[in-house]
Amino acid sequence: MSTDKLQTPEEIIPFLSYLSLRDTHRELLKRRREEQDNENTSLWDDVKDFLQRGEAAGAFLDIDEERQGAQNLLDYWHNQLYHAGLEGPEAILAEFDPTTQPEIPDSRCPYIGLDAFNESNFHLFFGRSQLIEDLMRQVTVNRLVAAIGPSGSGKSSVVLAGLLPRLKKGDLPGSALWHYYPTIVPGSAPLARLARLLQPETAATEEWVPDQIEAFRENSEHLVNLIDQSNPNPAILTIDQFEETFTLCHDEEERRAFLDNILRLVSSRGQRHLVILTMRVDYESYLNKVPLFQSLFEQGQVRVAAMNGKELWEAIEKPADLVGLKFEEGLIDALVREIVGEPAALPLLQFTLLQLWDNRERNRVTWETYRRLGGVMQALANTADHVYNTLLPEEQVTARRILLRIVQPSAGLEFTRSRVPRRVLYQSGEANDRIDRVLDKLIQARLVRLTKGATPIDDQIEIAHEALVRNWPRLGEWLEEAAVSLRQRQRLLAQAEHWDRLGRDDGALLRGGLLADALQYDDLSPLESEFVKASEEAKAAEEREKERIRQRELEQAKALAQEQIRVAQAERERADARKREAVALQQRTEALELAARRNRLFNIALLVTLGLAVGAIFLFVQANRQQADKIAALNSEATAVAAQSTAVAAQSMAEAGQSTAVVAQSMAEAGQSTAVAGLEIATVQIATSEAFNVARSTEVAKSEETAVASTATAQFVEALNAQMTATAQVTPSRASGSLSQSAPTATPSIQELMDQYALDAQLKAIVRERDNATMLYITGGTFAFGTDDDDRGSAVTLNSFYIDQAEVTVRRYAGFLNAIGSYRRNCDGGYCVFTGVETLYTSLLNNLGTYEARPSYETTPVNQVSWAGAAAYCEWVGGRLPTEAEWEYAARGLDGRIYPWGNTPEPNSLLANYNISAGRAIFNQVFAPFETVNALPDGASPFGVYAMSGGVMEWVEDWYSEDAYADPDTNGAAYADNSSGERVLRGGFWNSAAADIRTTSRFHLDPELTSPSLDAEVYWGVGFRCVRDVTN
Is residue 712 pLDDT above 70, yes or no? Predict the structure, then answer.
């Protein structure tokens, strides 16, 4: 017997764990069974090496069960050597020696921290065997396989380190021969990622990538063709973080081309190519935009749930056994208890295990280390705080800026990571060396991940895991403080891109507060910088124009003031002249009065003289008579002068009185205006509160006529069928040219037509680009518009058009408001809609200028919308409000039905959302009345349009008139006479009685929202949907 192959004690490398010893035993046993050759020296040499390493392993094994098992394995192989006639070591397990525990090298770390497992470390991935089996089964039956789960559930790891290694190993028949492409992440340019993935080594990137992107856009089978050309066997395409297709790619055409090529790949008739995806569950709703892709996705999906206790044990213990890492008794149990049942705890567990490894004592993890870290839920936060606190004050500022730049807000109030090039961080104005220094420290602490780029400035920086966002309170506080700023910053980028897509239209530039906010940013991208600069220039031009207008108005005001001064001066001069005339007249009057007194004295003197000279009377008679006549003339003149003076004085007083009267009249008119204004306000308040009741009572009075309307409509349709049938029967064949040789043409019935129209509505439906709403195709036709009362029931012929399948939701309207930046801007200065700031009767919240739906009400119909607010939204999405004829046709079809679902059954809760109990108070609920827009499919119209009865009343284009049905436009144009001042609404709402939700029910309201206190309850049940013309 030979012992040549025995090693010296210094050469022996012991097994560091029982698990590694057992695995080596199994490999030797397998070789022994396969070779069946006792003379195989290679095998026996390996057995001797196994025995020597196993003996030495005893120093590290302190668990009795493991020591007993190890000794049994050593005894087995020692006996095998003996029966083979060979001599070997004694095969006695060494005693456990706590003072000589081995120092495990750092390079053998069995844990990965916040990173996802991949094929390079799949041997450390444990605890997901059942989930891997589920994915393997999906691969056998579906060609699109998806692992979907919450952030931190381990969906990427189970695909990259679980499923793919199993397939490459050949666990499925032929899977070892498949071609496996490297895993890609879509990012903001998924087609470019796809092109680089398939780029041949000989192709130049600057030529290949643009050419392939264009080919992907033009041909949805281009991906299939490229893969088929280079692979004779099935190919596997793996896409990690698939949600980025929707969250980071803002080019709708590129996203559509990417998804179309993937769909073609998994449905090709040649090789059975396979696509494997991972996706966060909170972004699953984005798949509603692509129904066919969603269908395949749901067939091949596997839900990644939280790990159970057994799986967590395996994830902790088995990687440790591979390297001989020991946990003090009860420590693994404590780790499992702390996180079991947590859906996103896997990254926290891995991070904690990595910290425990870094702080191990030789080959052991102790309770003291665990307590010092703070447990699983605190380890990440404590480590992050420690790293931050060790930075210099200026470095802390830089760290905060970097972390807030690589975190972006997502839907709702959550935050997610984003990848940012290093050059973007350099644009902050801080020293580049400080940014690099802080980045290195964050990367070393495993809080931030770096992906190498073509050059250092192209390196991609991202947060290590979203778990850091959720579990580090300091970062959470920063995010709460900067939440508004982050969303505004994201909105700025969207607005800049929108401005660029519109050909840099001045109408899309920033103004007012939005521009002031944008000027505060010091790290703008080139496009954002151009956008802000153009906005500043436009603002300066507007201010210059305003200044020019102000100067012109100032000059006009100055000229007007000078003219008023001139007029006032002329008036003063005229007043002075009148005053001088009055003084002169007064002086003449006083002179005449003096002359009259003198005459009276003279007369007295004459009388005395006559008394003394009686004898001379006769002689003086004649002279006295002449003198008396003269005196009488003088008196008459004095009287006339006095009268003239009195007239002048009276005229002056009249003029003064007239001025006073003018002032009094002005004051009276002002008072009258005030009184009229007050009266008008009171009238408006009363009229507003009564508007809805009047409209409803008017329509209730007419609702009983609907049965007659249905009969008339049926007669109209019957006549139309008869006319079509008669025309078909007398029309000769084009080929024969003779009546006698022609065969009658079969005329489809109304029901057959409607069946075809309903099919066309679905087959020709489109998904609107701006808000991803489904629009059904409404085939044009002639129908009975209205009822037969008052000359109604006229035949109207409509062209084909598209209409929203469902009413506009709160979420979509919030997106519209966030895009335009205001809920009053596009509505003629009035309210587009009432938000939660104005009223409680809405699910639309206004959070400091950021609009969002109340939780759980995202897909309910938006309400409290003005007519202008509805029209503005429809214009924004490339459509318009329907005319009244279009709305009624979409609700009734050709057969003139009473309700959208038909003439029977009567309304019930499965068909419409209406007031089943007529006695229910109108304001006894706030949000409970609202249901999701597609909640009642059984109540759809003949074309498949949802909720055209009840829910919310819907604005249409027409102005209201009682006689609108009397003589409608035969082409269904909107009624344009605005003398009523009110617009039409159709369909009734959730509080309407059954008689008010018929297809002919009409309502009318003021199109403007002016007063939240007066209008909020009236417009509680007001919403809308949009239409779009069919263009060639």
Answer: no
Low-confidence winner among 39-48, 543-552, 598-607, 822-831 (lowest mean pLDDT)? 598-607
Pick the CATH number of 128-306 from 3.40.50.10490, 1.10.760.10, 3.40.50.300, 3.40.50.970: 3.40.50.300
Instruction: Please give the Cα distance from 286 to 290 (Å, whole number).
Output: 8
Give the model's pLDDT for residue 498.
86
Topology of 708-727+746-1029 in CATH?
paralog of FGE (formylglycine-generating enzyme) (3.90.1580)
Write down the mean pLDDT value for the chain.
80
Task: Collapse the DSSP code of 279 into the 3-class scheme (helix H, G, I; strand E, B; otherwise coil) and give the result.
Answer: strand
Say how many residues make up the chain: 1032
Q: Distance (Å, rounded) from C-alpha 999 to C-alpha 948?
A: 8
* 542 alpha-carbon distance from chain centroid: 31
Single-letter amino acid, residue 3 = T
Identity at 532, one-letter amino acid code: V
Q: Among 492-501, 604-613, 754-763, which stretch is predicted with the lowest mean pLDDT?
A: 604-613
- CATH classification (class only), 390-471: mainly alpha
Checking DSSP bridges between strand 781-785 and strand 794-798, what pairing results, if any?
antiparallel
Q: Rg of the chain over CA atoms, in angstroms?
A: 47
143: Cβ contacts below 8 Å, ≥ 6 apart: 266, 267, 272, 273, 274, 275, 300
Residue 397's identity, in one-letter code, is: V
CB 941 within 8 A of CB 977: no
Instruction: Note the pLDDT of residue 513.
Output: 79
Cβ-Cβ contacts under 8 Å for 810 (sequence gap 6 or more) = 843, 844, 853, 854, 857, 858, 859, 860, 861, 862
- Token pair recorded at residue 817: 């408001």
Higher pLDDT, 99 or 704: 99
| H helix or E strand, kind and range, residue 246 | helix 244-247
The predicted pLDDT at position 431 comes to 85
> Is 891 within 8 Å of 807 (Cβ atoms)?
no
Q: Is the pLDDT of residue 635 over 60?
A: no
DSSP type of residue 1029: E
DSSP three-state, residue 540: helix
Residue 639 pLDDT: 44
Specify whether the CB–CB gap between 851 and 818 falls below 8 A: yes
For the chain, helix, strand, coil in percent to 5 are 55, 10, 35
* Dihedral sign for Cα atoms in the order 874, 879, 883, 889: negative
> Token pair 């909107």 is at which residue?
974
Per-residue pLDDT tens digits for 908-919: 989 999 987 654
Question: Can you tell me whether residue 1023 is helix, strand or coil?
Answer: strand
**pTM of the full structure:** 0.44
CB atoms within 10 A of CB 477: 10
pLDDT in tens, 882-923: 999 999 999 999 988 999 999 999 999 899 999 876 544 444
